[in-house]
Specification:
alpha+beta, 6-stranded antiparallel β-sheet, 21% helix, 36% strand, globular
């Protein structure tokens, strides 16, 4: 993992754009959310309106059927799609997921590395819409797709 997990994340875009924040996370200047470390995925690429995560599910995310839990798919898709919307934010803006939907195409085998790509289709004053897909890094097999609607808002004023 390219980032220092002992750092704490900072405000979404305190002195720059959301894209700058995403690129700072990738470079290690800003710590990623700890959830990625817990679930075994991390951001590897960010450009305007597009963010890519990679991850490898392990035995800690399997369900009673001994397959990767759907929540893992949801978490990596929500992350790549939401961060794609985040890449469109201006300084002082934040976002949160309003809703998301995923479709699981096939089971990801434990230990297989996947790439989750989120792409923005709309980012306006108050909403962002993106979709995403999860594909195998080595075989390019499609494992899941998703879509999201995010609410975009001004960050609350800092308390002094």
């Amino acid at each position: 993992m390219p980032n220092n997990p002992t750092q704490h994340a900072v405000d979404p875009a305190p002195n720059g754009s959301g894209l700058a924040m995403m690129q700072d996370i990738i470079s290690g200047r800003v710590a990623p959310p700890a959830m990625g470390k817990t679930l075994g995925f991390y951001m590897v690429h960010a450009e305007d309106g597009k963010v890519i995560f990679e991850g490898t599910p392990d035995s800690s995310v399997i369900n009673p059927s001994n397959t990767v839990h759907g929540g893992w798919y949801g978490a990596i898709l929500d992350s790549c799609m939401g961060c794609a919307v985040h890449s469109k934010l201006k300084s002082g803006q934040i976002y949160t997921t309003l809703e998301y939907k995923i479709n699981l195409i096939r089971a990801i085998p434990v230990g297989v590395t996947v790439r989750a790509t989120g792409v923005v289709h709309h980012a306006g004053r108050s909403t962002g819409i993106a979709d995403g897909e999860v594909r195998g890094v080595e075989d390019d097999r499609l494992y899941a797709i998703g879509s999201t609607t995010c609410i975009i808002m001004d960050a609350p004023a800092a308390k002094t």
